[in-house]
Amino acid sequence: MNGKPYLSRRTVLRGLGTAVALPWLEGMLPARLIAGEADSKQPVRMAFLFAPNGKHMPDWTPANQGALETLPSIMQPVEPFKSDLLAISGLSLSKEGGDNCGGHSCTVGQFLTCELPKRTIDKDIRAGVSVDQIAAGAMGGQTRFPSLELGCVPSKFTGDCDSGYSCVYTTNISWRTPTSPLPKEVDPRAVFDRLFGNSIKQEESANRSRRDRDKKSILDFVIEDADALQRRLGIYDRRKLEEYLYAVRQIERRVERSDDGLAPETDTLGDRPNGIPRDRDEHLRLMMDMIVLAFQTDSTRIATLMIGNGSDNRSFPKLGISEGHHNLSHHVGSQKAQAKLSRINRHYMTHLAYFLNRLRSVSEADGHLLDNSMVLYGCAFGDGNAHDHTNLPILLAGKGGGTIQTGRHLACEQGTPLANLYLAMLDRVGAPIDQLGNSTGRLSELAG
Questions:
Q1: Which residues pair with 89 in a beta bridge?
Q2: Which residues make beta-bridge pairs with 45?
Q3: Are residues 150 and 191 in contact, defined by beta-carbon separation less than 8 angstroms?
Q4: What does the pLDDT look like over 56-92, one tens digit per residue?
Q5: Taking residues 430-437, what's their average pLDDT?
Q6: Angle, vertex CA 190, rays to CA 189 and CA 192, nearest 5
Q7: Average pLDDT for residues 390-415, to the nearest whole number?
Q8: Taking a C-beta distance cutoff of 8 angstroms, is the pair 409, 64 a contact?
Q9: pTM value?
């Protein structure tokens, strides 16, 4: 650009214990072509957001198939993103074994694996390889981190959480192998440090100590590299880099002050690590911000986020709801309980709207980050009162690099395996496989 030398997509700003990856810049575009890539298209990312306890389905399901017109009440917070949404109904998980399958453990345990988990509370756990890890195995070598596994409530690996099923099934959705679940990180500070550390433990420790002692920003350690890079950039890229570094600093400030001056909620975690915000909404937003940063810098292309563990029973005092979420999900027909469930469901959708807005605000060569992503938001139940494994609430956001026709409601034949959708998603990130769990074929309707 303007005679400036081209930049590598892997350019980073370095300092003591620090490696700040960059967003896409115009100056990087020729470098992609010189490197032998067929075109300038950006990579497709996948994020899986899991919400607990199902939905109140009458307030979730669009009234008609086809174009999304008036969104149902729970989805209304994502109205500004209607053209980027594909609501999918009729998808199901397996319920072989009937009531012996268990409730939350059986469904959460197969949400991304589509394999029935083994009923056990001992060490002989078994599920399947999850769709995110299949993608990570195919794509991970192209990024610094093969995948990110995040959450808002810690994982558990022992105990009986549901009908003789280990707690590992209800608190983890990502499985590297059928016997190896990947624990999620719940501390935003730890994720931030991981994204911007240089993986040299001694230097990272020194960096952390100096930041804590001298109230420094992680950007203070890369200022010389940043200034040198600015001199190489065109006007547009200089402005974009400044905006990116400002955004990183703002998120860093929120992480650093997340434990200060915020009143604890009535149901905070007993052993909350220092970096976990007292405010649950801020906690969730920060974890979403970490995914956006990771995607924006191509640090990873695969992420999972458990908003809550299976059978999460936290209350929502900000919404004026004192009952636990799981307890409310067993509403036994109570209209008051169902109304509260809808409010909780809608509250979660305000956070999804925040995440989609952050993705859409990041520009790339051929559009924005949301255009080049597939964000699956869903639950392992439809109706939580019945522990219904069928007709799951599934919402897919983003155009998958232009391969998904959005702005509509796709009503699949009832009982269509959720795994069929995952096969179609894997195709779009260059990780095709023939079978996943109980799949019966690819969901070909994503393209319209």
A1: 411
A2: 373
A3: yes
A4: 999 999 999 999 999 999 999 999 999 999 999 999 9
A5: 97
A6: 65
A7: 96
A8: yes
A9: 0.94
Residue 293: closest CA among 14, 43, 23 = 23
CA angle, 432 then 400 then 58, to 5°: 105
Scored b (16 or more CB within 10 A) or e, 100-109 reads ebbbbbbbbb
Token pair for residue 144? 């610094």
Burial class (CB in 10 A: 0-12, 13-18, 19+), 281: middle
What is the pLDDT at residue 269? 45
405 DSSP β-pair partners: none
d(CA 225, CA 198): 14
Q: Which domains does the chain have, with CATH numbers?
A: 1-40+191-275 (no CATH), 46-186+280-447 (3.40.720.10)
Q: Which 8-state DSSP code applies to residue 184?
A: P
CA dihedral 247, 141, 149, 329 (to 10 degrees): 110
Helix (H) / strand (E) containing 151: strand 148-151
Q: For residues 394 and 272, give the distance between their C-alpha atoms in angstroms, rounded to a whole number.
A: 31
Helix and strand numbers (H, E) in the chain are 12, 16
Q: Which residue has the tokens 């959005």?
A: 406
Q: Residues 18-45: what's their mean pLDDT? A: 75
Beta strands (DSSP E) in 233-391 are: 302-306, 363-364, 367-368, 373-378
